[in-house]
Amino acid sequence: MSASPAASSAGPAPEHSPAYTRRRFFNWFPLGLTYALLYMGRYNLTVSKTALGDFMSKADFGTIFGVGAWVYAVAFLVNGPLTDKIGGKKAMVIGAAGAAAANAAMGLYLSYVLALPDPKSAPLVAVFSALYGLNMYFQSYGAVAIVKVNAHWFHVRERGSFSGIFGIMISTGLFLAFDVSERILKFVAAGGPVDVADTRWVFYSPALLLTAFGLFLAVYLRDKPSQAGFADFDTGDASSGEDDVQPPVFTVIKRMLTNKVIMTIALVEFCTGVIRNGVMHWYRILAKERMAAGLAEGWKYTSDNWGLMLMMAGVVGGVVAGNVSDKLFQSRRAPAAGFLYAAAAVATLLMIPTLNGDGWTLGILVFIMSICVIGTHGLLSGTATMDFGGRKGAATAVGIIDGFVYLGTGLQSLALGYITTQLGWLYWPIFMAPFAIAGFVMLTTIWHAKPAPRGAAAK
Fold first, then answer.
1. Could you read off the pLDDT of 105-125 as tens digits, one per residue?
2. Which of 143, 222, 341, 429 is the most buried (most CB within 10 A)?
3. 18-229+239-444 placed in CATH 1.20.1250.20
4. Count of beta carbons in the 10 Å neighbourhood of residue 459
5. Which letter does DSSP use for residue 237 in this model?
6. How many Å apart are CA 119 and CA 121, to the nearest integer?
7. Is 458 exposed, middle or buried (0-12, 13-18, 19+ CB in 10 A)?
8. Where are the domains of the chain?
9. Contact status, residue 167 vs residue 381, Cβ threshold 8 Å
10. pTM, whole model, 2 decimals?
């Protein structure tokens, strides 16, 4: 097999052979589908909440998802450095297997509860919080694994394009989680009304699919080009010029925690966690309430096609952010993310006067916000982590950054569960607006940052 030529950190991306490009595709594509299935097994909780109705209140949902989000965030402190040590392949197989088992357990517990004489007497919130927390622990392997693997296969000059790929993976997972899960419920109901008992299939479906894809990756996935018969090459990131010896875990952690760019991105991604999930979960819950109140214009269409809208937003946001970053800003990530954050801040403020209108105007605004935050997340968490973490610290970097994403996610989950129940929907965008503004301001402080070889400052 032909090898892919090397490239220096300052030079352009190498000219890969067709054989290398083909093998790389068949490496990241099933890996990306597995990552999308992890999303299906993560955001299926939102679908279950709408299907369960009063059986799971908004406050219950906020508590369960908040616990899971914080478990996910804290798990990165262990799983990021662990993935840098054991490799992305093993990490993804562990994550897929564990998430499959946890989803299956949630489906089985739901079946058990619904078979009780008085289902509402069961400790649903406590048990689901524990099982969903376990699910999110294993889910946390996904992002670190995919970035760790692809850090070896993509040169820094190619990673803006990978940001688009990463956004598509995320958006596909959202489509699977929301729309496909809804279609599964309708299929199980055989054309009739969806019964509460049917909800267990929202958990069984990703469990089965994750098991199948995890087995495939265990056989076919490769961590590095050299393991697939190609030469490893200098990817031009923060590990450029170093040997292939993995440094001690605490050395890698110290490098990441003392890197101004990494930590600024982490704080920006905390804001992303608040806004992305603040829109993704709560718009659909609002739409269901508006429809229950007899309103249909715009609300029904956007609710029924919410997964498709998020998928389109992710594709557009990811592709635009990545290409703008590579083509217009010479692989600098902050400017592209900054423009998206500015647009998100404006859209968040415009939500306030449109809350009581038809579903179309608000639907367009949250669609624009989804483009902005999913594009930003793919660019920062999926691409900048490879750039500034390097091949040796990519998993630790994404662990830190995604950990902050889910600290923000946990905050919004608990806060908006309370706010939308006790204070009303007006305070939904008011809560998110300061985070959108703060994210833009922080990105301006790293506007010109680019990765540099170890020993040189990022510039």
1. 999 998 898 888 888 788 888
2. 143
3. yes
4. 8
5. S
6. 5
7. middle
8. 18-229+239-444
9. no
10. 0.73
